[in-house]
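Students often ask why we bother encoding 3D structure as a string. The short answer is that it lets us treat folding as translation between two languages. Here is a chain of 237 residues written in the first language.
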Amino acid sequence: MRFLFVGDSMTIGRAGDFTWRYRMWQHLSASFGGPFGITGPRTELYDTFADAPVSCDYGDPAFPEHARRHLAGWGEGWLHMAPLIRETVASTRADTLLVSLGLIDLGFYTDSAQTADNAELFIAEARAANPRVRIAIHPVIPNVRAESDAPFAAECDRFNELLAKAVANLDTAASPLLLVSPHATYDIHQDTYDGTHPGPTGEHKLAAAFADAMYVAWGVGGPYSGDGCRVSAGTGN
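And here it is in the second language, the structure alphabet:
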């Protein structure tokens, strides 16, 4: 299998982060039980000082370059990824997409209905490149802004409803879609460093959400057992 991570700032990570991509690579390395690859056109982290994705300073320098590959960007959402995904899937031969997008769209670019339209376009474009592609999609996790901005919180909830309907309606046996359930204990005040972006426990919990969903639905890998899901939030690396 060839996995492609697609996401926004929560997925690309910033300089110094381990990233949930790293946690997933560790999980797959321990549980997959066969050959797999991680693919994508990018490998870098976002550098706050350069305001650009130019950093290679991962939390674990031993994270191998071939496993750092992704299609994620700081400030990028469904709006930005839909036009890129057909060529990316075709050129990388990705067959399993792990997607976490939407918060940046709703925060800056599109309303819930427009964001859902872009998610459906993304799915169609990915399938145009690989009619048998499998796509696991994580709903939007409302960030700290949603606590003080009621219209934004409502848009997050509405988009997640529309996303669930789209996944149910567009799912096929040939190209399965999977709506990932957020980790039961994910807490933006404990598992992020700023109310949005995951810290170490948040990274583990995002990886766990995808890993457990794929294991239950598709028999891929095994149950997640990373430290962030065994210890109390805020402890664990």
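Translate back mentally: The chain has seven helices and eight strands. Keep this in mind for the problem set.
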